[in-house]
Amino acid sequence: MAEDLVRISGTKDDIYDGLFPQIVALIGNEKDVVANLGNVSAALKEAFGFFWIGFYLVKDGELVLGPFQGPVACTRIQKGKGVCGAAWKQEQTVLVPNVDLFDGHIACSSLSKSEIVVPLFKNGEVVGVLDVDSDKLEAFDQIDKKHLEKLCQWISGLL
Length: 159
Ligand code: SME
Prior knowledge:
single chain; 159 residues; alpha+beta
């Protein structure tokens, strides 16, 4: 497909529902993980205007920064540390309405106010996370969780 996205308006559900098939088409048969995760980040950033969105991938027992869109971010996160490390350790999505109230939150940017982190599984193990940050409080809810988990399940097949 042409490398541009059709802009979708409507509810959050509408935007996710309209974006998902476009992401699938954008990736097509491409197998390069960096290229694909880069394009997934860019598509989500373009559709929602998230402050920061990107991937951390498990390498040698740590989460290491992968493709992302947004301001510079910390490079390595240990298991159990921060929101990303918590999602890895708990093997589940962590939704943080107010990062100041999350014990151990890693503030890559002081502008980040709320966050959602969704694990990526491969053969039952966490192999990375998708991290999305907003500069607004309570930006993420169960709708984001539902769609981002579906997206991450699909992304796992690309890894
Ligand atoms: N806030 C995250 C660290 C990554 S940055 O937000 C990009 C955390 O607490 O794990």
